[in-house]
Design brief:
The protein has about 475 residues and is mainly beta. The protein has 2 domains: about 325 residues; about 70 residues. Helix content is about 5%, strand content about 40%.
Amino acid sequence: MNKFLLFCFFSFCAVITQAQSTYYWVGGATVAPQNISTLSNWNSSLDGTGSSRISSTGADILVFDGSNYGGVTPTSGTDSVYLNSSISCAQMKFVNGAKIIFKRNTGGTSTLTIIGDGTTAEDFVIEAGCSARLSDGPGSQVIVMGGANNSGRVSGDFSMITGLQARIANGTSTGTTLVFTAGSTFTTNITSASAAYPFGNNTQSTEKWVTFQPGATCYYDGGFSVMGSSSTFQPVNFLPGSNFVMRVSNPIGSGGSFFNRKSYANITVQNGATLTADGPINAIDTLTVNSGSTFTTHTSGQTVILGDLNVHGALGAASTSTNEIVLAGNIPQTIAGIGLITVPSLLITDGADITLNKNITVNKAVNVNGKINFRTYQITGDATFTAKSETVATNGTANLSAGAYLLTGVSGASGLARGISVSGPGLQPGTRVISYTSNADSIYISRSALTTNTGATVTFSADEATLETSNPAGFDPVNGSI
């Protein structure tokens, strides 16, 4: 009996060891692309002298090593791989300069399932200097990450450029995350006939399961939005210092939800593209519009900017638009550039410190709660101009939801102006009031709530506005700053 138990124990260990085997891609032979599901295209030794993968659905670690794709016939550089059928593995890694282009070579859809190893180890990794692309082909390609503690990291380049379905999603697993680190890039241009969002929609992934860290960049080259299909879902969390770069104009009325109630870090519009906002924007850090490019605000609501505004192309709105540019930063902000800024309204919130380094045109209303230094420049146009007085601290209550830019069930805010500060437990320092509902029971704010709290005590307040000018005509309504 004891011998039988000992035998079972060692047999179990053998199964576990086998399940955790590492296999290297050796299918990059002289005849490429090769099928990812062909077991002999994977080998336990990088030089191809080991054993082949046992099953295409095993819990193995699969490695694309850029120093050799060909096993006994060494190859390197860029290798094309047919994602010819669905496979699964515990982990997939791209190392040593690996550059892999995936393509499904027949119609239908191939799913690459990364089940994770159940630990905190990274399960999907693209190292710096490496790249992976889901490319055009007769069929569609889907990567699914899911399970407890499943995590991914992109330090190199990841892209989806195809006229068919493509995405990486976490299967709505709240324990699964994907992080783009400093220096990494993601490029998307998915133009399939049916909806295909690079990081999934709300039935395929969870809220903000993808994070772009400072220094990481997302390039939009066309097709469907990286932000999913609706204004109530955002799969990507752009941390301050990360970048979203539009190199192609976004479609209007299709392609998903691009900006409606979304939050970004730095946004750059370049290459002659036009960014057309499909709704109010909760937050942008620094906004840069390059020469020949255009940023068109939504027809209503607010566009909140927390950093600098650099316009070398054009920032504008439709003639009937009531959208308001809101400058709400906690650090000094500048408005600069050689382009044109012509907007309906401008709000400078409490605590904001703005330096005007160019002339701008505002046609409906300018409201200043914070500070603006005009230097020698002007705000022109038909707008009314109001410098706000102090708002004495007033207490109220509100319901907070972590990560949300909306306070609900608000009391104590009736009659208060927009642009003032709101503070309290669970709110970030420097949070400002952006807009109210008609009865002031819900308030959009400039920074997302840190915690979820019901009936939290909040305080509304604002200092008086400060205006500064170096214009020889001062604030003369004809020749002065306003």
